[in-house]
Amino acid sequence: MAQLPERAVERGLLTNPAFLAIWGAQILSQVAANAITFALIVLVAELTKSNTSSSFLILFAIVPAVLFGIIAGVVVDRSDRKKVLVITNVLRAVAVVPLLIAGETIATAYIVNFLIAAITTFFVPAESATLPTIVRKADLMLANSLFTFTFNGAFLFGFILLAPVVIRLAGYEALFVLTAAMFGLSALLCLILPATPRPSAHLGVEIAGAAVAQTRAGIGEAFRYLRRSPVVAWSLVYVALTYTLVAVAGALAPGFVREVLGTDERNVIIIVAPAGLGVIAGIGLLTLVRKRIGHPHAIGLGLGLCALALVGLAGARPVANLFRRAATSAELGGAFPFFVIVVAVIAFAFGIAYAFITVPAMTLIQLQLHDEIRGRIFGVLNVLVSVFSFLPLVIVGPIADVWGVAPVFLGFAVIVAATWFGSRRVRKGLQAAPA
Q1: Do 156 and 83 share a structural domain?
Q2: DSSP 4
Q3: Which of 34, 131, 384, 398 could bridge across to 240 with cysteines, CB 3.0–4.6 Å?
Q4: Which residues contact 367 (CB under 8 A, 6 or more apart)?
């Protein structure tokens, strides 16, 4: 590990210039990435009016993690992480340029989405690996807490506030220029970071091959560990399932507001904003009740609420059709404001459910795992998230285009209910175990 600068050791976390630089770079780049994601989802939905196209756009953001996940870790370990952070931010700024040159087309949206996701695959491990080298051990927990808080805050600001407002007021081009500038400023902030020591072994074909072989062996060992630890195994399933639900919901959201609410795709904020606020409310509620109900009960409640929310979203279209038949036009008429409130409340409940499942599940994973296996288990988690997300995103778009979103939401409600039922014995056993 690199030695901390003396001034950084003597000062507190928020007076550490290196930490402030990487924290600022994280905030700017995360806001920009989320804003671009929102813009491309809405743009593709507007151009194609197709749930399938939206699903494949999200899929293009997942594939790079599968293709480059292993090699990204090798590159980060064998390179100056400061250079990796600077270069990846510059490349993400450059990746936005085709949207300004080629215009707002489907092909350009797909390409840019893939490029940004691929480059981000290298940025994230470099950022995580840099943090312990620039802050004191005593400040590391606070640093991680601040990063987690701003990670969620960046989603809310970029996806729910910045992108919708800028697109409405100034259009897509203004947002693309703004996000490219944010990536560029993030790169400038990373220049403040200290350089990491020259690695003992340089990146090469032999090292990369050995790393891949070690990773495969480690993943095999992790799966053997999971067979002996059902609590950790089910916790991984919970997290992977919720991440998959978020990916599917993101892909179907524009089509939902268009087909169910009968409004413009840019109004996807109607369901995205309540869901994001629900996550925040769920995290806050968990801090109040987690000691009383425990992690297993919180997860059980979250799964139940999630299944009910999905059923509610599945029933939204039939109810909307009833309102339309009672109205004089194809719109929802005077019932529209009330119906939007109902949908927003359901989305809010979905956000609470997400928090009640994901936060306790991640906590259980961290509590149950031994240090020597933790990295490999989280590697398995990344594999699970990718695998769980890949197939649904391939099929949910065509299903929604042919039969509507209701079958998709009902199908996932059944999956969530089956997960609740299948893991109830493990949760009960854990709840009964002494603290």
Answers
A1: yes
A2: P
A3: 384
A4: none
Same domain for 256 and 280? yes
Q: Judge if 240 and 194 occupy the same domain.
A: no
Based on the domain organization, do 264 and 165 belong to the same domain?
Answer: no
Question: Are residues 420 and 307 in contact, defined by beta-carbon separation less than 8 angstroms?
Answer: yes
Q: Which of 203, 234, 266 is the last residue of a domain?
A: 203
Burial of residue 15 (CB within 10 Å: 0-12, 13-18, 19+) is exposed
The CATH number covering residue 434 comes to 1.20.1250.20
Q: What is the distance, to the nearest Å, from the Cα of residue 146 to the centroid of all Cα atoms in its chain?
A: 17
DSSP H or E stretch at residue 237: helix 230-259
Q: Are residues 151 and 259 in the same domain?
A: no
Q: What is the separation, in whole angstroms, between the first and last Cα of the chain? A: 35
Q: Express each pLDDT in 93-143 by its tens digit.
A: 999 999 999 888 899 999 999 999 899 888 877 887 787 778 777 776 677
- With DSSP H G I counted as helix, E B as strand and the rest as coil, what are the percentages for the chain, rounded to 5? 85, 0, 15
**Are 114 and 190 members of one domain?**
yes
Q: How far apart are CA 350 and CA 246, in angstroms?
A: 10
59 with 128, same domain? yes
* Span 42-51, pLDDT tens digits: 899 888 888 8
Rounded distance between C-alpha atoms, residue 378 and residue 433, angstroms: 25
Interval 22-31: pLDDT, tens: 999 999 999 9
pLDDT tens, 195-248? 876 555 554 555 555 555 655 565 566 667 667 778 878 888 898 888 888 878
- Tell me, yes or no, whether 176 and 250 share the same domain: no
Give Rg (Cα) of the chain. 22
pTM summary value: 0.72
- What is the SS3 assignment for 50-119? CHHHHHHHHHHHHHHHHHHHHHHHHHHHCCCHHHHHHHHHHHHHHHHHHHHHCCCCHHHHHHHHHHHHHH
Planar angle of CA 321, 323, 326, nearest 5 degrees: 110
What is the token pair recorded at 338? 């009330």
Distance CA 272, CA 228 (A): 39
Asked if residue 61 is part of any domain, the answer here is: yes
Amino acid (one-letter) located at 175:
L
pLDDT, residue 7, reads 42
Residue numbers of the chain with a pLDDT score lower than 50: 1-11, 203, 329-330, 434-435
What's 191's DSSP letter?
A: T
